[in-house]
Q: What sequence folds into this?
């Protein structure tokens, strides 16, 4: 007897490859519109600021003829919408323009200063993650204990205390008074010529060359700003980890495991922690991105030659080419990390994959 195939018996669901391509296309469209929105917002706000970019280039004492020539050269005689279209066209060719403050291409300036900020934020993130996750887990394990209250107090102190004040007090105590660490800057002048830059990360470069005296000096300069910058990451990561863990410890599978005789530590670190690993990783990734963005005041206090200080100088000088380039970079980092976290969710949590079925 032959089988009758009805329309309802035919599987019309899209293939996994098609669903993947569709998600990638939607992600690319989202990235494009997000970056375009960032560029538009920063560009038009910059044009409304009471800062004359021509004066920022040629100074106050230039003649009217030189002023008009530079005004035309910068394209400021064009309508505002035309200036924005021209700028977007340059962005599509990865040309961020020339920085008015340095007279160098913005892309070259960012490539020069960004490794310093990336190294600072990475060390701060390592400190925040290495201390924040265990602190959050133990605070949830021993809820309402003295340790839990201490972690919450440290978090409150981090959120309420200005980081520039902590930086100044840290320099006064550990550098000027005790002499335990290096001062402002990234390295002492005496060691600067002994360093052979390769990766742009001076801790790695000095270790690769085997020059441990330079490594010690670089470490002495980075440890205090990284600790102060990482304090906010520690507070946020520990608070979120504690919240995730408290929710998991109240689930029935933990109670069942305890009834079966599993130790409290094994229930927490083997079973509960596995279920909070992905959301915790998301918190860590976004915290790292926030450290890159939030290093402005820290770099200013410690005279750190990084991305935040470069952006601050560009803002004060009205250098919108540099400002927009830096803003787009930070935006691209945030968007990229969000997409990565979403991908990790779909890999490790099968429930999220059912949305595309």
A:
């Amino acid at each position: 007897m032959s089988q009758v195939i009805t329309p309802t018996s035919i599987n019309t669901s899209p293939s996994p490859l098609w669903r993947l391509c569709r998600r990638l296309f939607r992600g690319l469209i989202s990235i494009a519109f997000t970056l375009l929105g960032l560029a538009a917002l920063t560009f038009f706000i910059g044009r409304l600021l009471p800062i004359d970019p021509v004066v920022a280039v040629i100074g106050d004492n230039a003649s009217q003829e030189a002023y008009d020539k530079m005004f035309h050269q910068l394209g400021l005689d064009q309508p505002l919408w035309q200036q924005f279209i021209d700028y977007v066209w340059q962005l599509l060719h990865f040309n961020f323009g020339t920085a008015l403050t340095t007279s160098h291409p913005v892309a070259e300036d960012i490539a020069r200063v960004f490794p310093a900020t990336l190294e600072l934020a990475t060390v701060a993130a390592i400190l925040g993650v290495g201390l924040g996750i265990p602190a959050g887990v133990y605070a949830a394990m021993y809820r309402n204990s003295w340790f839990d209250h201490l972690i919450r107090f440290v978090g409150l102190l981090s959120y309420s205390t200005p980081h520039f004040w902590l930086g100044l007090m840290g320099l006064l105590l550990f550098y000027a008074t005790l002499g335990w660490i290096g001062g402002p800057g990234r390295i002492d002048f005496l060691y600067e010529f002994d360093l052979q830059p390769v990766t742009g990360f001076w801790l790695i470069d000095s270790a690769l060359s085997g020059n441990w005296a330079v490594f010690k000096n670089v470490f002495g300069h980075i440890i205090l700003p990284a600790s102060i910058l990482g304090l906010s990451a520690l507070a946020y990561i520990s608070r979120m980890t504690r919240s995730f863990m408290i929710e998991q410890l109240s689930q029935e599978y933990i109670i069942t495991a305890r009834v079966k005789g599993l130790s409290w530590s094994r229930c927490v670190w083997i079973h509960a922690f596995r279920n909070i690993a992905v959301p915790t990783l998301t918190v860590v990734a976004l915290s790292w991105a926030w450290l890159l963005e939030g290093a402005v005041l820290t770099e200013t206090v410690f005279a750190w030659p990084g991305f935040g200080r470069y952006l601050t100088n560009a803002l004060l000088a009205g250098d919108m080419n540099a400002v927009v380039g830096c803003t787009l970079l930070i935006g691209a980092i945030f968007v990229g990390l969000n997409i990565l976290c979403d991908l990790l969710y779909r890999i490790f949590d099968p429930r999220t994959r059912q949305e595309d079925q």
